[in-house]
Write a structure and sequence with these properties.
elongated; DNA polymerase, domain 1; alpha+beta; 5-stranded mixed barrel; 3 domains; Helicase, Ruva Protein, domain 3; 19% strand; 10 helices; OB fold (Dihydrolipoamide Acetyltransferase, E2P)
Length: 202
């Protein structure tokens, strides 16, 4: 099962992406929340992935944030909520707002999402209310968004991207460490990768 993909973004549209990993292009369906934050084509992207297996094929659903993938997986555990509807929901509401609406039992907020009628909204509240707070407690949502990825997360993602691009782990680690030490202010994955790639290119 594919849980994460890191590679070069070769195509993007509002419905799906193509990510090239060592010459293999993976089609990944994404919600609008992920689409709007994607880098330009030709750049490296890392996605948290849910692999959905069915009789006529295997589909990949990707998210920039792990919390969105977890909420997606909780959604599709509800009866009548398939992957397409879950993606549509996450395209119409933020993960934090969805959790808040379910926790409060706010049926009006849910039914304002395109594709979610009253019966579906009631079923979401009934079946997910006790599940969803376990993965994203309301009191921790603000802190989680403000904290962002840790330095270790950035290093791990950068190393994963570089090794997927064909670089050996040893030189990649040295390039990432040297780049991190040279950066001023708060490091980002984009800056870390660009600096490491320049060093690896000599």
């Amino acid at each position: 099962m594919i849980a994460r993909i890191c590679g070069t973004l070769t195509h993007k549209s509002v419905s799906h992406l193509v990510v090239d990993v060592n010459g293999v292009g993976y089609r990944v369906f994404v919600p609008l929340s992920t689409f709007y934050e994607l880098p330009e084509t030709g750049q490296v992207v890392t996605l948290h992935v849910h692999t959905h297996v069915k009789e006529d094929g295997i589909n990949l659903f990707g998210f920039l944030r792990q919390e969105e993938r977890e909420i997606f997986q909780v959604m599709i555990s509800a009866s009548g909520i398939g992957p397409r509807l879950a993606m549509n929901i996450l395209s119409g509401v933020t993960a934090a707002d969805f959790v808040a609406a379910v926790t409060r039992g706010d049926l009006g907020r849910l039914t304002r999402i395109p594709g979610v009628g009253r019966k579906t909204g009631e079923r979401i509240i009934l079946e997910l209310k006790d599940k969803i707070h376990k993965i994203m407690p309301p009191e921790g949502r603000g802190e989680a968004r403000e904290a962002g990825p840790t330095k270790d997360d950035l290093i791990e993602d950068a190393l994963s991207a570089l090794t997927n691009l064909g670089y050996k782990s040893g030189p990649a680690r040295i390039a990432v460490d040297e780049t991190l030490a040279s950066l001023e202010g708060i490091p980002t994955l984009d800056l870390l990768l660009k600096g490491a790639l320049r060093r690896l290119a000599g």
